[in-house]
Every structure is written in C-alpha cells, then in structure tokens.
Design goal:
This protein is an alpha+beta fold. It is built from 2 helices and 8 strands. The strands form 2 sheets. The chain has a 5-stranded antiparallel beta sheet with strand order 2-3-8-7-6, with no helix packed on it. It has a 3-stranded mixed beta sheet with strand order 1-4-5, with helices on one face.
C-alpha cells in the first residue's frame, strides 16, 4: 500500500469502524480525525528519493521509539498535527527492508520555523525551505533529536 494511502487509512479508521452509513453526518472526534492535516516525510538531504539508503532512525529503548535524524521537503510539516515518517529501524545493509513507517504526533505551528521540545527532552525542529512560487504551501527541513514516539505509534 502506498504511504499516502496508508496515512489516509490511519486517519480515517474512526469513521470506518464506527458503523455509520456514508450518508450519516460526521461530528465530534470523528470529524477531528478526518480533518487532521497529515504531512508525509520520506526524503532526506543526502539521499533524495533513494528510500533504501535513508539514515533517519527510530531506535526502540524498551518503552518507546526514539527518532533521530533529518528529513527534507516535508510539505505542510508546520501546520500538520501528524507526520507519516519513514525511518530506519533495521540495519543499513537491509536497504528498504529495514524501514518502518511511523505516525508522528506534534502540535500545529504557524510560521516558517518551529521547535517542539518534549517533557523528557526529545526535540523536533522545522524550517521552511525557500521556494519560488508556492506561497501558501511550505515544505520544511526537519530535524529530530531523540524525539519520543509512543510504543503504539
């Protein structure tokens, strides 16, 4: 399943499990799940779209995943509350087989730069990449330093 379709499926799960017909009005937390802005983060500065070579890693510490590394060209990362992020969980020699997709939760930020520091010290920063044309659709360079992802991510 393509990454974008996977993220779409994950954010739509409350609707499909609710048992409502397609014509039922959507309200409350289900509406929130459906309208959450999701960014996709796969590309890395040194590897572009060579997905099998990415180095941004997620390390299991026995209680949670710890995300470290950089990503680039992540459109809507500032305003998004969820990021579908591809990270290395296996050995680099495994190529694409050593990768996992994570759903990273974060607060939405307005503006061209943001920083989110977790209570335990994990940190995510983002900086809008200057581009010609696209004035309302910013792509970001992201950096993660021991950013904690819950076990069920």
């Amino acid at each position: 399943m393509p990454i974008a379709e996977t993220i779409s499926t994950l954010t739509m799960t409350p609707t499909t499990k609710s048992g409502r017909s397609a014509s039922s009005p959507i309200t409350g937390s289900v509406r929130s799940a459906i309208t959450t802005l999701v960014a996709i983060s796969v590309t890395e500065p040194d590897f572009g779209s060579d997905v099998g070579s990415i180095v941004c890693s997620a390390r299991w510490d026995g209680a949670a995943w710890r995300l470290s590394g950089t990503k680039t060209w992540c459109t809507f990362a500032g305003r998004a509350e969820l990021i579908g992020l591809l990270a290395r969980t296996g050995d680099a020699s495994q190529g694409y087989k050593g990768l996992s997709l994570f759903v990273v939760e974060k607060p939405a930020f307005a503006g061209h730069d943001f920083e989110h520091v977790q209570p335990g010290g994990g940190k995510m920063t983002g900086r809008a990449i200057a581009t010609l044309g696209y004035r309302g659709m910013h792509s970001y360079a992201l950096s993660f330093a021991e950013y904690v992802l819950p076990a069920d991510t």
